[in-house]
Amino acid sequence: MKKQKPKAIVVGGSIAGESCAKALISADWDVVVIEKTRGPPTQNATGAGLGLDPLAQKIVQSWLHEPELLYNNTLPVTITENLATDGEKKISWVIGREEGTKYLTAYWADLHGLIYNTLPPEIFLWGHRAKDLDTNEIIEIVGDLLVGADGILSSIRQSILPDFKLRYTGYCAWRGVFNFSENDSETILGIRKSYPDIGKCLYTNIGSGSHIIVTELKKEKFNWVWYVNQPEPELKGNTTSVKVSSDMIEELHQRAEQVWLPELSRLIKETRDPFLNAIYDCDPLEKIIWDRVVLTGDAAHPTTPHSARSTNMAIIDAAVLGKCLEKWGPDHLYSALEEYQSIRKPVTSAQVLHSRRLGQMKQGLSIPGRERPFDPKTASLEDSEFILNKNVPLFDVVPPILDSIFRSA
């Protein structure tokens, strides 16, 4: 008689949750994914740009039926460049440049769709939380493992740690994706003139108490993320998104004219439907496993976006969890979870704290142990070096348990 497969209940249907589903199915587990939104996110024009590091790229490729699909939906980034910007004089100059980086930029919905399309659609329960959101019917699901992959506002984490609170960073992020297949060529020419390596370079403009990232995505899109210091906004519902009004967008456009060069200001003005997120993180948790419960992605280690770690950590978490479960087998679940925690927690903890410091520096905020805030106009060589991507701690470390993926993909 064939032995029944162990079953995992994954809470969260975003990239973290679907990555866990893929990794656990590959480890010969049955999986059900519970997601509160009412349909696949790929059906909506949601999200913005993201960067995939080399290890995450290899993992995603190992999951795809056709690995080259990843390259069909992304652009390679081989350069990162940091620019100081003087908003009054309308000039920028390079304070740091790194060549030989190996990121891929992707549109969030495209990456989600790539992974989602490799999974059986029947494993997803859309429109569910603790109950069916359409009928209010309570649905009981029995499993051997509960995976909290439900993001920065994780309900699974909150049920285990009821006193847990996120740390507001002191700033929010305006995000926009400019589709230049539909827009004025003068705006595009201005961006390409100001950023001559765009298409293969991730640019970070650092002004006085603010910074903005500009990069190109596949399918004729420019992606920008502008971090703005402000008091913590009042959030409604289970989201870090801030409701945006036309007055707020008008104020954004006016501020862009004051802070950034005209070409960048014009890009911001001509981007449709920019959206705003409050930025949070937290000090590293003491543990991310409890009995038959495990956290992954932003549920396990809420982080700021400044080291491009959120999506990458979620994908790597999932792959490591899957390999640990495969190695130990269902009869040794606790050993598998303990190994997962021992591999991932030191890495994610160091990267969360590094990303926090990067954000504080680029936003000109006070930092414990530092005499004065970072000023890009007078940046020391040491500071300019610190904010380069190559200094992300443990960035190049491939866990031995993932060696087979890294070498074969």
Could you list some keywords that capture this structure?
single chain, 409 residues, alpha/beta, 9-stranded mixed sheet, 6-stranded mixed sheet
Layout of secondary structure:
Blueprint lengths: L6 E5 L3 H12 L3 E6 L13 E4 L1 H10 L5 H4 L1 E13 L4 E17 H9 L7 E3 L18 E4 L6 H6 L6 E13 L5 H10 L6 E7 L2 E8 L3 E9 L11 E2 L3 H14 L2 H8 L5 E7 L7 E2 L2 E3 L14 H19 L4 H30 L18 H6 L16 H6 L1
Parallel strand pairs: 1-2, 1-7, 2-6, 4-9, 7-15
Antiparallel strand pairs: 3-5, 4-5, 8-11, 8-13, 9-10, 10-11, 12-13, 14-15
Helix pairs in contact: 1-4, 1-9, 2-9, 6-8, 7-8, 9-10
Write a structural description.
This protein has 409 residues and is an alpha/beta fold. 33% of the residues lie in helices and 25% in strands. It has 12 helices and 15 strands. It has helices at 15-26, 54-63, 69-72, 108-116, 155-160, 185-194, 246-259, 262-269, 310-328, 333-362, 381-386, 403-408; strands spanning 7-11, 30-35, 49-52, 74-86, 91-107, 124-126, 145-148, 167-179, 201-207, 210-217, 221-229, 241-242, 275-281, 289-290, 293-295. α1 packs parallel to α4 (108-116), α2 (54-63) crosses α9 and α7 runs antiparallel to α8. The two termini are 35 Å apart. The mean pLDDT is 92.
